[in-house]
Amino acid sequence: MTLQAILLVLIIIGGAALLSWPLGRYMTRVMDPDGGTGAMTGVFRGIAGSLGREEQDWKRYVFAMLAFNIVMFTVVYLIQATQQWLPLNPDGMGAVRPDLMFNTAASFTTNTNLQHYSGESTYSYLTQLGGLMWLQFVSAATGLAALVAMARGLAGRSLGNFWLDVQRASFLVLLPVALVFAAALVLGGVPMTFGGSVVATTLEGVQQTIARGPVAAFVTIKQLGTNGGGFFGPNSTHPLENPSFWTNMIQMVAIIIVPMACVWMFGRIIGRMRHAVVIFAVMLVFVLIKTTGAVVFETTPTQAFAGLPIAQDVGNLEGKELRFGATGGTLWAVLATATSNGSVGAMHDSLNPLTGMMPMVGMWLNESFGGVGVGMINMFLYIVVAVFVAGMMIGRTPEYLGWRVESREVKLALFALLAHGVFILGGTAIFAATPWGAATLNNIGPHGFSEILYEFTSATANNGSGFEGLGDNTVPWNIATGLVMLFARFIPIILPLAIVGFMSSKRRAAESAGTLSVEGGVFATMLAVTVIVVGALTFFPAATLGPIAEHVMFMN
Amino acid sequence: MLQSLLASLRITAATMAICVAGYSAAVWAFAQTVTPFTANGSILMDPARNPIGSRQIAQGFSQPGYFWSRPSAVDYNAAGAAGSNRSPTSEDLKARAAETVAAYGATPDNPLSADLAAASGAGLDPHISEEGALYQVPRVAEARKLDPVKLTELVNQQARPPGAFLSNGRIVNVLDLNRALDQLEDTQKQVVAGQ
């Protein structure tokens, strides 16, 4: 790694980590106001109606969350279905196929933002802003609400009220932060216009149609809410979505800052900041390992150019933008997949084989900060398993924060973690063995397998990035990934809330000298090992067939 | 059940009004006031006010008298951008690179700068590396009957490090460079005419 690369990594990740501390404090204050009476709580109760007054148990909380998410899905499906008759459509976008509408509505409702379309040639400005950008706010707010509820439960309190939490997250967290970042991106040159596309006559006299749009508003919340869905097809590699080195840096900070702050907010609500520091440190170590791996692997020049008279001294440039510098796109690939963001700053399909495996590892683990709210919730599942295993090893009833972890809780946690593997590996197996997947590839051999593996990984992790060569706008892909996204979103939200509900219905034990501490290096190691064993080893055989096989076969 | 539906719909209305309409309007008003040029896509106009392209978007150049942009998987279609999405180990990529090498007439003694052979992420990268621009100086100079030293100066003048001390190397905006080239030739013609 060059000095510049190291500096860039340190500034982005270190800067985001520093900023996440005050943001976490602010988020705690507005998401979990003392005694449930924040300044705006009265207003939010008014909007929610009588349901805004109840204290919800985990079942009521989940029911409210699902009800709102069903409405989210339905509204956006309807907007897509009628966009050709609605206003704000200067480029005359037409009707969209039902299977694509289903996939897109599922994708943005679940905070995934897998995109089987190109925004500039499929959706009107109204669909993009009123449908997709709206979901980028409220799906992230759903995740944040679920995390706050889980933390309250672990603190021994009622879970709170979803109808209030989702409004707090939308109006008091995401909106103000988005305004700040949007202003920065506008100053960095990101467009914000409703003017429709421009037809230019180039210097050589050719007609060039240039798609534009209200990009700045969209891109900001796409990053902050770990959504990742781009305004244009090639996402943040597009010069109008990410015009410079500096907008690239701002967007990378925006990708990771809210998930980082979520860990601090969790620590504050449960009243255990030292525990939060341990969790943060474990997540950070995973991110740094993946970053180092990706940046180093990507310094290998483009293999296909070997033997041709091409001077290659800056690594693999296929699919990369020069204005982000040598490491901008690669660092981005790690950050956007450690979180469940899934935007891209370089084409992942064209990364070197082992570099391309780093984003996959990020999504397999899906907890190195992870999605807004849900990343910390995923980590909670690993914590439950780690605590249980440790408890068995030292021969004590496993406890977490004084709550007894028994077989029912561990079964639910393992079910949620294993579902992740089943969706990824099962889906990949079916599509690799049938024309559903095999007929849609852009590359042959192990790289083609990687395209399928990546797509199911991305859908399951609610990430949304892709090996975009895959011709995935087909009925089988749209329906399969649409269903996977929905199940893989709600299983790991509902089950953790259930676990907390069951645990907190028991009597809380006082912590003694014999209790496994969750605040030290021993616990950190235990947690990291659990993540690696449960998370990574499940996927090692698949990785061997894809990126590792490609590396061994071609990269010599 | 009905109550939950109504609560959902009321929150939908509130978030649509504030997080979509209010937020978009605020960002739009800020952008159009503070940075109107980039807010509208950095569209450049000729003297007759006809658009000639966006400063941020690559356009295709194939005449020898212009500096050429990086390869584009979508032929510089700015209404349907995409990358090649080829694996770096792919045979198709090798074949494409061989065509590019032939177009530039690169040889082992005078190898092509890698960015000129590699397609960008969106196929619309407006920049090439300084080395990539210098590589093209002899061709452009010959086509335009200009002094290569003068062209080299022009390239050096326009090259910028993309991220100050955080990046290696310098890059050049191809459209800016080619417009400057046209102007340079115009001035020279005027000078010749004046003599």
TrEMBL record, chain B:
InterPro entries: KdpC. Residues 1-31 form the signal peptide. It comes from the Bacteria. It is a single-pass membrane protein. Keywords: ATP-binding, Cell membrane, Ion transport, Membrane, Nucleotide-binding, Potassium, Potassium transport, Signal, Transmembrane, Transmembrane helix, Transport. One of its GO terms (cellular component) is plasma membrane. The keyword tRNA-binding does not apply. One of its GO terms (molecular function) is P-type potassium transmembrane transporter activity. The keyword Transmembrane applies. It is found in: Cell membrane. Part of the high-affinity ATP-driven potassium transport (or Kdp) system, which catalyzes the hydrolysis of ATP coupled with the electrogenic transport of potassium into the cytoplasm. This subunit acts as a catalytic chaperone that increases the ATP-binding affinity of the ATP-hydrolyzing subunit KdpB by the formation of a transient KdpB/KdpC/ATP ternary complex. PANTHER family: POTASSIUM-TRANSPORTING ATPASE C CHAIN (PTHR30042), POTASSIUM-TRANSPORTING ATPASE KDPC SUBUNIT (PTHR30042:SF2). Belongs to the KdpC family. The system is composed of three essential subunits: KdpA, KdpB and KdpC. This is Potassium-transporting ATPase KdpC subunit.
